[in-house]
Specification:
Oligomer: single chain
Strand content: 5-15%
Helix content: 40-55%
Largest sheet: 4 strands, parallel
C-alpha cells in the first residue's frame, strides 16, 4: 500500500527530502545534481520527469523541444548509470501531447504537444536499453489538470480551449494526478512502457487500446 505524506508530515512518515536545483538543459548541471543525490542516498530508485515548457511568451523557437525532449533524454541517460535493477523512470505528459498527430490541439499548445510527444517517443526508444538494466518506464498522461500553470496559461491565451474541456466535466485535481504518479512510481506494472491515463474520459474514448 502506498503511504502518502504532506510535506509537513514527511518526518512522521520517516522520509527525508533533499532539494537540489539544476538547469536540466545543462549536462554539467545535471551531473552535479545527480552527484549530490547519489552522495546522499546511494542510488536513484525513481526518476520522475516533470520538466515542461513551451507556452511562455517570447521563448526561442527551439525552447519547447530542448526542455520537453532533449532535457528529458539527457536526464534519463545521466540517471540510468546511477540506477539499480528494479528502478523506474516515470515520464509525465498530457493527453494532447500523448495523442499528438491523432487528435487536434489548441494552436498555442502545439509546440508543447509536439515536443512532449517527441520526448515520449525518445524515451520509449530507450526501452531495450532500460530492459537490459532492469529499469522500467511508465508514462503518466493527464487531461488538463485543475490549478496547474498550463491551464492558467491556456486560459490567458485561449480561454475557449479550457472552456471546451471543462464543459465535458470537472478537470482532474493536482492531488488526483499526484496520486497516479505515486502509483506509477512504486506500484506494480504489467510491463515497461505502460501508459497510465488520468481524467478526460471523453477525450480518451476510442483512443486507448491498452
Amino acid at each position: 500500500m502506498v503511504e502518502r505524506c504532506d510535506v509537513v508530515e514527511l518526518a512522521e512518515c520517516r522520509g527525508t527530502a533533499l532539494p537540489v536545483g539544476a538547469d536540466v538543459t545543462d549536462a554539467d548541471a545535471i551531473d552535479a545534481m545527480l552527484h549530490v543525490v547519489v552522495a546522499e542516498f546511494g542510488a536513484i530508485d525513481v526518476l520522475v520527469l516533470n520538466a515542461s515548457g513551451g507556452l511562455e511568451f517570447g521563448a526561442e523557437p527551439d525552447y519547447a523541444m530542448s526542455i520537453n525532449r532533449d532535457a528529458q533524454v539527457a536526464l534519463a541517460r545521466a540517471s540510468i548509470a546511477r540506477m539499480e535493477p528494479g528502478s523506474r523512470i516515470v515520464f509525465l505528459t498530457s493527453h494532447q501531447a500523448h495523442f499528438h498527430g491523432k487528435k487536434p490541439v489548441p494552436v498555442e499548445y502545439e509546440p508543447v504537444a509536439a515536443s512532449k510527444r517527441a520526448g515520449e517517443d525518445a524515451l520509449r526508444g530507450m526501452i531495450p536499453e532500460l530492459d537490459s538494466r532492469g529499469i522500467e518506464l511508465v508514462v503518466v498522461s493527464g487531461d488538463m489538470i485543475e490549478g496547474t500553470i498550463v491551464v492558467t496559461l491556456l486560459e490567458r491565451r485561449n480561454p475557449d480551449s479550457v472552456a471546451a474541456r471543462t464543459a465535458q466535466g470537472a478537470l482532474p485535481t493536482i492531488a488526483e494526478f499526484a496520486s497516479a504518479v505515486t502509483e506509477a512510481a512504486i506500484g506494480p506494472i504489467e510491463k515497461s512502457g505502460r501508459t497510465v491515463y488520468v481524467g478526460g474520459a471523453d477525450y480518451l474514448d476510442g483512443s486507448v487500446s491498452g
